[in-house]
Amino acid sequence: MTPALAIAGLRTEFRIGGAWHPAVSDLSLDLMPNETLALVGESGCGKSVTAMSVMGLIRPPVGRVTGGRILLEGRDIAGLPEAELESVRGDRMAMIFQEPMTALNPVMTVGDQVAESLRIHRGLSRTEALGRARALFEEVKIPSAAARLGEYPHQFSGGMRQRVMIAVALACDPAVLLADEPTTALDVTIQAQVLGLLSDLRARHGMAVLFITHNLGVVAQIADRVAVMYAGQIVEQGPVGAIFARPAHPYTRALFAAIPRLDRPDQALSAIGGRVPPLDAMPDGCRFAPRCPLRRAGCELPQTLEPLSEEHAVRCHVAAHA
Ligand SMILES: Nc1ncnc2c1ncn2[C@@H]1O[C@H](COP(=O)(O)OP(=O)(O)OP(=O)(O)O)[C@@H](O)[C@H]1O
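# adenosine-5'-triphosphate complex -> structure
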């Protein structure tokens, strides 16, 4: 089966102090239809830059994609001219964000925003598009869907606004949905509802979802597979069950150790000491080595992702040969 999204060897750079430095390097991942892959890691590790690169939203002079292939349903979209990318964005792939107002237009009714995408990409008339928008609002469970189509984003609560953004993203039935921390700003109950909705929609539409989060609890709820990022690289990837039962990379283990445990309230929260290295001062070898409790000879060399089992891989020579 062709992956809905296949990224191979992605490299994305930013200009800092007159020189270009990679924020994402040698990133490869496959996403099958009807699968959710969670991309996890601390703030600044390159999760959003990965998604923005796929969407073709990183371009000079601010940044540039200098390597790799991005295959959307088998077609390489890396380096497509902007006009061609525009016809793919919002159609075969779409993105949702933590803050819906990033994606929504404050001075346009929500119904027209869903309809606009259908008019541009599908050539529907306004009436046809609004009819479809109403069905989408019902699908994302916005109560009184028909009446609310004529309202503006500020008239919706935070959770309902997320549903509007999801409806806009799903308008053209994309093969790939990139979700960048879409539930992080919501309170826990609403977050659970939106996660449940996304799971249902994924199954119903057979979509591939790349779900960006720093929250391992959310990963457990929504993902089939996990890719852990550190300093612009994937350091471990595998099925959720394997990553949660046998985290191998010292960074993945540190992420788990940093989760507060309700069953052990006395235990001190084990935060990860030190900082992520800045883009212009990346170590040549393992990027986690300066913070790693298992550091030893060999860590000063570049690390490659090595298989631990058929689907589980780790970028650490110590963990790979333990
Ligand atoms: N426009 C930019 N110019 C320069 N550097 C940038 C730019 N955008 C992102 N970066 C850098 O790229 C790196 C990766 O950032 P990114 O936003 O992808 O991290 P993230 O993992 O998504 O974090 P967060 O969870 O905070 O969004 C960071 O070091 C960031 O400072």
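# post-check
The pocket of adenosine-5'-triphosphate is lined by residues 14, 23, 41, 43-49, 62-63, 214, 279 (CB under 6 Å).
The radius of gyration is 20 Å.
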